[in-house]
């Protein structure tokens, strides 16, 4: 058996395309399956990161622990949760957005809506933002390659 994770390929390529000057510290909002792919990519790129979840843990913050200082020190913010996805477009991770600035990069794996409230709040503070559409397209292309190779088709 062979396993493939197209989340890894899609996220890594989109991250590198979106943010040529990647920060060296990240916060990853969420701890589910998509977060695992993001963690893998961040480790591969030697980006230090902390997870953020509803409950604190050994290697993760709770949302309440994400202080203004944590936001100021951590320039890459990645949402891997469904928070803000249609139809719940008025929701966003509860963090101190006022401490985001022009040196921050916000990546939301959500692609519907195109600009989640998380991304809108980052943009209002001057941050560079990216949604999950490119990641989705890159994943689809990689899946097509995998399935085409598995079935013996080249197109």
What does this structure look like?
The chain has 155 residues and is an alpha/beta fold. The chain has one domain (6-144): 3-Layer(aba) Sandwich (Rossmann fold). The chain is built from five helices and six strands; from the N terminus they run αβαββαββαβα. It has helices spanning 6-18, 33-44, 68-73, 117-124, 133-151; strands at residues 25-29, 48-53, 60-62, 76-79, 105-108, 128-130. A six-stranded parallel beta sheet has the order 3-2-1-4-5-6, sandwiched between helices. α1 (6-18) packs across α2 (33-44). The longest helix has 19 residues, at 133-151. The radius of gyration is 16 Å and the shape is globular. The model has no long low-confidence stretch (mean pLDDT 93).
